[in-house]
Write a structure and sequence with these properties.
The chain is α+β, with helices and mostly antiparallel strands. It has one domain. It has a 3-stranded antiparallel β-sheet, covered by helices on one side. A 3-stranded antiparallel β-sheet has the order 4-3-6, covered by helices on one side. The longest helix is centred in the first third of the chain and has 59 residues. The N and C termini lie far apart (about 75 Å).
Length: about 180
Amino acid sequence: MIPSRTQRGFTMALALAVAVVMGLMLMKVAPDIRAEVQRENESELIFRGEAIAGALKVYSTKMGRYPMNLEEVMKLRPRILRQAYKDPMTTSGEWEFITQVQAGASGNKEGLPIVGVRSRSTLNSIHIYQNKTLVRDWQFTGEQNLLGVTDEASRLRGLPKAGNAAIKTDLPVQQ
């Protein structure tokens, strides 16, 4: 038996309605998925940044100076960094280097010893890291305090130690 024209039209309208409902449901879930992806990328950024910072600190201890680039760190044997990590928050994966010496007027940092890295991303963060909520402000350095404040002095002033991450919540912090 061949379906009549009205039955075929009803089936097509039903299929269209199902597609519209599924599209609306996906639009509702998309922001949650983006937030989850960002949360995971931020966690990965913290892991990779701290791994690089630790490797830079070990490198400076072994070699008596900071490296000029991450390739120097990767050449050191035994390995102190598992791999040359890329920035997970940007599509290029390139880090912004924090140098031991201030860059000149041109802003060119080539040839300057690097003491740390930071992301080039300009996103607001989901995590709070080093009391900062902008991903670009998170610094991962081999020198824990570029200003020369020791961890003990930081503790006395109520500042967190470098590397402490937290997630934004509305809950009060218990001491």
